[in-house]
Structures are given as C-alpha cells and as structure tokens.
Specification:
This protein has eleven helices and 15 strands. It has about 300 residues and is of the alpha+beta class. Bound molecules: flavin-adenine dinucleotide (FAD). Flavin-adenine dinucleotide (FAD) binds near residues 113 and 166.
Length: about 300
C-alpha cells in the first residue's frame, strides 16, 4: 500500500530541522533511514502531514573516538557502524551491529532513528544501556544529554519534546580488560529479536569488579537490569552467582505475549541468554576471541 499524501521537506541543518519540526504542527515527523517510519506509513498505521528529512544534514553521521569516549552521529547507519573502528575495538558493539535485520535495512537504518523509535525490540538502545551511553538531543530549548536508560519512557514513547531531535550518541571507552557480549534470539534475519541481552563486564581476577546488564524485547521499554547487576558486582563469578543473576534478570523482565512467543517462552530465553552473555563476556575479558551475535530458530 502507498502512504497517504504528505509534504516533504529536506532540512539542510540541525537548526532548520528544529525550526520545521517546531512549526509544522502535530502531523510532522522527522525522517532518517525510513526503515521504521515508512513501513508504518505504508501500512497506514500512522499518517503524517509533513516529513522533515534529516538525511542530508552534514556532519551528523560521524563516528569518532577521543578523550576517553566514543561519539556517534545520529545518521550513522548500522552497516557503517558494523564496519567501523568502534566495532573492531569493542566486540559487544560488533555483536549488535551485525545482528540487526538484513543488508538492506542495515544500509539505510540509522542509530538515531533506531533509538528515537522508542521500540523495545530495537537492538541499539539495549546495547547502549550496557555501554552506559548518553543520547544527545537538540531542540527549540537548546541541547541536552539524556542517559539512554531514561530515554524511552514507554512503548514507542521517548522523552523527545516537540521539535527536538537526536543528534548523536556518546559512551565512555570501556576500561582496559573490560569486555561484553550481546546475544539475541530471532526467527530470521529480517525480524526483530524475540529477546536480546547485553552484558558488559569488568573483571578483577575471577571477581566481577563492575557490570552492566540490559534486556531487549523483554518489556514495554529496553530494560536496565540493575537487580541482575547487584547479584554479580563485587562477587566471585561462580555458577551459583550466575544462576542468581539470570533469575534476577527474569524477575525484572515483563515480556508481552505476541507473534514471537509467550511471556513464559521469552523468560526462558532471557534466563539462558543472560548466562550465555556473562559466559562469553568473561572469556573475552580473559583475552579469548569468541564470536556471538543473534541466533536463529
Ligand atoms: C524488516 C525490518 C527488520 C528490522 N529488524 C531490526 C532488528 O533486528 N533490530 C533492530 O534494532 N532494528 C530492526 N529494524 C529497524 C531498523 O533497524 C531501523 O533502525 C529503524 O527502522 C529506525 O531507523 P531509521 O533510521 O530507519 O529511522 P526512521 O524509520 O526514519 O525513523 C524512525 C522514528 O524515529 C524518528 N527519528 C528518526 N531519526 C530521528 C532523529 N535523529 N531524531 C529524532 N527522531 C528521529 C522518526 O520520526 C520516526 O518516528 C528492522 C526494520 C525492518 C524494516
């Protein structure tokens, strides 16, 4: 089906995008890669009066490292991110980037659009919670940075105000010796994960010095699993401790019943994936090269 007619505007700068989005009324939306928005418009699940295309704004697709942090522009595509030096340096980043959809979607979809869609099934917000990222926003009231775990408020609802856009993402460079794993479970490449888990570990010998755990497709928003982290932080990583962490993650999840599975099935997956994520992250912390990404069933 074709979308209902709309006016198309191409923004040349962040300031112009903000001005258009602020002044064109309730029916206006930002457009980035179109991989979520155009699908919704074509299915007539959403209608718009105006689209403001951000795609030609210069300088909004950078991928940079320096001063102890990584900075990624909102328009960086999944495909570029998967091939970037960030993915080479941070295995958990590569796990997530390579698992998103198929080549076509990865070539068009952007990290900014992925985060802004407020979809708990999207991989970037879940991965970025594990990396303790900030979302950089700019709007009529100026600039602000929001911790990624506070960015999605409810299903498909973010903290973005009228006229406000995401300009980029930043996160601290992981400590030396830290490593993570991002593991998801999905039916096929061009499908969103049934559930996904991110684990970023910092080890001190056999003890867990620090950890972040995140869950995707496990509730109405991406979840920062602080209960699971509390079971792990400062502890010797025995099998019992890992089992308790996986159980805590399940208790923090609240998956919905949908075409991808029942809540019970998804919680079984979360339990398994948390254990697998911790196991892979720990081996990577020890310097082993381990390949993981989404698995298909
Ligand atoms: C078949 C298929 C399979 C997919 N599978 C996966 C998957 O497995 N994992 C996954 O993570 N994703 C998946 N996706 C989603 C895809 O990865 C895109 O990231 C996602 O569609 C949004 O990015 P986009 O750039 O296309 O944004 P758009 O579709 O252009 O926009 C999405 C929403 O964000 C808003 N928006 C976009 N950019 C900004 C910005 N900079 N500031 C403020 N608001 C903005 C738009 O107004 C819109 O509401 C899939 C998509 C398809 C079509």
């Amino acid at each position: 089906m074709y979308p209902a007619p709309f006016n198309y505007h191409r923004a040349g700068s962040v300031a112009e995008a903000i001005s258009l989005l602020s002044n064109l009324g309730d029916g206006v939306r930002a457009l980035a890669g179109g991989q979520s928005l155009l699908v919704l418009l074509k299915a007539r699940f959403d209608t718009v009066t105006d689209l403001v295309d951000l795609g030609r704004i210069r300088g909004l697709d950078g991928i940079e490292a320096g001063n102890g942090e990584y900075r990624i522009g909102a328009l960086a595509t999944h495909a570029r991110l998967a091939r970037s030096p960030v993915a080479e340096a941070i295995p958990i980043f590569q796990d997530a980037a390579n698992g998103i959809a198929d080549n076509q979607v990865r070539s068009r979809g952007t990290i900014g659009g992925n985060v802004s869609s407020g979809d708990p099934s999207c991989d970037w917000p879940t991965l970025l919670i594990a990396l303790d990222a900030q979302v950089h926003c700019e709007g009529p009231d100026g600039k602000r940075a929001v911790p990624v775990n506070e960015f999605v408020e409810d299903l498909y609802l973010t903290v973005l105000g009228d006229g406000e856009i995401v300009t980029g993402i930043s996160f601290p460079a992981p400590e030396k010796g830290a490593a993570g794993a991002y593991v998801g479970f999905k039916r096929c490449a061009p499908a969103y994960p049934t559930t996904s888990v991110g684990v970023q570990l910092t080890m001190d010998g056999d003890d867990c010095k620090d950890v972040r755990v995140s869950l995707g497709s496990s509730g109405l928003t991406p979840i920062h699993a602080t209960g699971a982290e509390a079971e792990l932080r400062g502890k010797l990583l025995t099998d019992d401790v890992i089992v308790r962490a996986a159980d805590a993650a399940v208790a923090e999840s609240d998956p919905i019943d949908d075409q991808r599975g029942t809540p019970e099935f998804k919680q079984l997956l979360i339990n398994t994936l948390v254990k697998r994520g911790i196991g892979v992250a720990r081996r990577r912390c020890a310097g082993e090269q381990v390949e993981v990404s989404h698995e298909y069933y």
